[in-house]
Design goal:
Layout: H1 2-5, H2 8-15, H3 19-64, E1 77-78, E2 89-90, H4 94-102, H5 112-120, H6 123-130, H7 134-170
Antiparallel strand pairs: 1-2
Helix pairs in contact: 2-3, 3-7, 5-7, 6-7
Length: 172
């Protein structure tokens, strides 16, 4: 990069070469940098594709599970119904509540279905179940919502890539 940025006359003088050779050298170096950047971007896209594929497989396996069977570790908390007490009932599993309490970034530890449950939970109920204030519970809910949104965008990107791949295969 430094050699590309050096003015040609200065570099030609320093290397005792003609400006034409320096131009060819700088052009070649620029092509190498461009190729490396394309390779880096391709690797990132491939990693994103593989991550989206894993996420989609995870989501599909969750969807394939029978919905009729309730989760075994359901925990329902009821703190009352008066307006001075924050009325809170939550149907989040003990495992989800433990992850929310103990993990520094629980949204990364939960599957998409659990993220959805946390997102849909009332902030007051979640705060009560976790023993937190509503602001902290709301912040965790927002983080869960952002992670779920990110995962859904990855699935959409994967579907888009698959559609593009199918369209490309269909071309003669």
């Amino acid at each position: 990069k430094v050699l590309i940025d050096v003015p040609r006359p200065d570099l030609a003088e320093e290397l005792s070469q003609s400006e034409t050779k320096i131009r060819v050298l700088q052009d070649t170096l620029q092509q190498v940098l461009d190729r490396r950047e394309e390779e880096r971007q391709s690797r990132q896209l491939l990693e994103l594709y593989l991550e989206a594929l894993k996420t989609e497989d995870s989501i599909l396996s969750k969807v394939a599970e029978p919905h009729a069977a309730p989760r075994k570790e359901m925990d329902v908390v009821d703190t009352g119904t008066s307006s001075t007490d924050s009325s809170a009932t939550t149907a989040l599993s003990n495992q989800v509540l433990a992850a929310l309490k103990e993990k520094p970034a629980p949204e990364l530890c939960l599957d998409s279905q659990d993220l959805e449950l946390v997102q849909k939970e009332e902030a007051a109920a979640l705060a009560s179940a976790l023993g937190w204030d509503e602001q902290k519970a709301g912040a965790v809910q927002a983080a869960c919502e952002q992670e779920l949104s990110r995962r859904l965008r990855q699935v959409q990107a994967l579907r888009s890539l698959r559609s593009a791949a199918k369209a490309k295969k269909a071309l003669p």
